[in-house]
Structure formats: C-alpha cells, structure tokens
Amino acid sequence: xxxxxxxxxxxxxxxxxxxxxxxxxxxxxxGRAAFETLRVYEGVPFRLEEHLARLASSAQRIGLPAVDQxxxxxxxxxxxxxGGEPNAMLRLYWTPGREGLDxxxxxxxxxxxxxxxxxRRATGLRLVSLTLGLDAELRAASPWLLAGVKxxxxxxxxxxxxxxxxxxxxxxxxxxxxxxxLECPISNIWWRHGGTLETPSLELGILxxxxxxxxxxxxxxxxxxxxxxxxxxxxxAGADEAFTSSSVREIMPAVSLDGEPVGDGKxxxxxxxxxxxxxxxxxxxAPAACS
Length: 291
Hints:
Layout: E1 3-8, E2 12-14, H1 26-30, E3 34-41, E4 44-45, H2 48-62, H3 69-83, E5 88-95, E6 105-111, H4 117-123, E7 125-131, H5 136-140, H6 155-166, E8 171-175, E9 188-193, E10 196-200, H7 210-219, E11 225-229, H8 233-237, E12 241-246, E13 250-257, E14 260-261, H9 269-290
C-alpha cells in the first residue's frame, strides 16, 4: 500500500519520504497512539466525523492528550486534495509526541487501496478461529485490556493474521475462552440464519466498527433483521452465510471456517446485497459532504 500523500500537524503537507515521527515519540517507544482507517470515495472521506469521534474515544482510553479533531479534518483535506486520487485509503494517527513534552502529533496518510479486494470478494475468505485467554465476562469487565480501542499496539492482530495464513486461511476470528465469537483482527464478523443477521454485541468489548453501524442501518432496507448478542462458535459455523465488515475492505464474504464450508461454501447473497447498498450509501454521502 504505497503512500500517495502525507500531512502532519504543525507542518502541513510533507514529502512521504521525509521522517515524520521522532525516535522518542511514545507511539514508537510504547505503542501509545490511536489511529483510524477509512476510505475516500470520489475525493470525500466516508463517515469522517464518526471515525474522528472513535479516534477521540480511543485516545481518551489510552490516556493521550485530547484529539484535535478540527486539525485532523484540515490535515485530511490537505492530504486527500494533494494526493489527487479520488478513491483511496485515509489513515489518521494521534500520538502523544516525544517523552517529556506536551506536544501531541496528528498525521494523515493517503494510500492506495489494496488491489485484491474485489477478487477476494468474489472468492470469499477462509477463516480460522483463534482463542483469546479470557472468558467473555472477564474480558468485558477488564477495561485496562483496552478492548474495543484502535491503538497502534497491533502486534497481536498482525500475529493472528500470520497464524491464519500459516494454517492455510485468509483471516482469523477471535473467540473468548468460553467459545464466544468476538471479531476478526481488523474487521467485525457477521453471519446469517434465514432472514436474520447475527453479530457479536459491543458489550463483549469488540470494536464499534463504523461500517458495522452502517450495516445495521442498511440491513432493514434489505429485509434483514439484526440480532446482537453473545454467540458460540457453532452459531457461526452453522450459518447460511457469513461475512466481515470494515471501512477499507467493506463487506467481505467468508466461505469457510476451520476448514469446513459455511453454508454452501460460496459468497452469500446477503453479503452481495449489503455491499451494493454500502456503495450506494457512499454515493449519497459524497454530494452532501461537498456542498
């Protein structure tokens, strides 16, 4: 994912090859930074306000200085306009800055969208389940674990993706110790039984995905009910279809779990319907955001 453009607080547009973060920035030393990733459609970041609100919440949970949301909007506008790519990926970072200094740093990066998303959507993802070390109740009652926070301490997520590939799959889905389904390393997980979509509850400490909220909103227009709760792995394994949702990947079908097909082992119609509805929502969003 090559960087197209870069903007940094206090500096404005910066050449992407220019060093941006100091060696003693706490984001580097301790992984104490918050971030958001979203898509740009026709030059307009989709649901930027919602992503900034979640960034501010993550920063507060980590104990970072308050996020300059207005400043990040300006950085986003600079980076998107300078990049000149109407459809791209926007990443926003908020770091506490250098040790001993009260100078947080905001960063906006515009990059190319990974080229294989449509191909993967056509074939569907192969998932494997990976168990985390806590049961659902203890996880939800342990705020110091930062469940649901998007921080740059992403080593576990990356390790999970690597383990999935080692097992011959494309992605992982996390479980609690008592076998409740949580989420994927970089996306939320959904499955369908008949006319009902099921997805883990936010009370389990999963990420409050912006696209997850969009799916809940769009589902009714597609004739689908949504049920949030605590579900065992068998509920996902026995579904008619499954898919993941995230801002960059959008709606991505999942066709197998732990080597066994989900449903008929093919991308499902609900996933396809919701993908079309999501794209239509981005088209409706762009003119309003530009007016």
